[in-house]
Amino acid sequence: MCGCMHSSRDQALHLEGDPGLSAAPTSTLAPRKMPKSVSVSKQLASIEALKKGSDLEKAIATIALIFRNSSDPDGKLGKATAKNLLQTQFRNFTEGQETKLKCQDLLSELDEHTENKLDFEDFMILLLSLTVISDLLQNIWSVKTVN
């Protein structure tokens, strides 16, 4: 892979959707223009069932889309990709938590994961576990809900 965050499955979907693009490069030496990826917000907006969805439903759908866009063709995340997602998409929940024993345990479990890849269920459990121990959650609980 070229280091981009999209799986070959997503790239194939982009190619299928645009008849002007060819799946095979015309020359192995000529640079091939990669199709633009569709933003998560546009992907979310394209899901008819979520047009009137709740905030919670949209939040879970957003996680699912980010996972799918980052996963391999088998629908799994490699450890490096999972860690990158935590650093780039979840940093406000993980920042400063590295010294907490529970956080260290969760991240070491990720390192020791026997398959070397995470499916969606494992990823959700990891996200929820990191959320529960984060300092940011305490800030969220203290937000005023009424005037």
UniProtKB/TrEMBL annotation:
<dbReference type="InterPro" id="IPR034325">
    <property type="entry name" value="S-100_dom"/>
</dbReference>
<dbReference type="InterPro" id="IPR013787">
    <property type="entry name" value="S100_Ca-bd_sub"/>
</dbReference>
<feature type="domain" description="S100/CaBP-9k-type calcium binding subdomain">
    <location>
        <begin position="56"/>
        <end position="95"/>
    </location>
</feature>
<dbReference type="InterPro" id="IPR011992">
    <property type="entry name" value="EF-hand-dom_pair"/>
</dbReference>
<feature type="region of interest" description="Disordered">
    <location>
        <begin position="15"/>
        <end position="35"/>
    </location>
</feature>
<dbReference type="GO" id="GO:0046914">
    <property type="term" value="F:transition metal ion binding"/>
</dbReference>
<dbReference type="GO" id="GO:0048306">
    <property type="term" value="F:calcium-dependent protein binding"/>
</dbReference>
<dbReference type="GO" id="GO:0005509">
    <property type="term" value="F:calcium ion binding"/>
</dbReference>
<protein>
    <recommendedName>
        <fullName>S100/CaBP-9k-type calcium binding subdomain domain-containing protein</fullName>
    </recommendedName>
</protein>
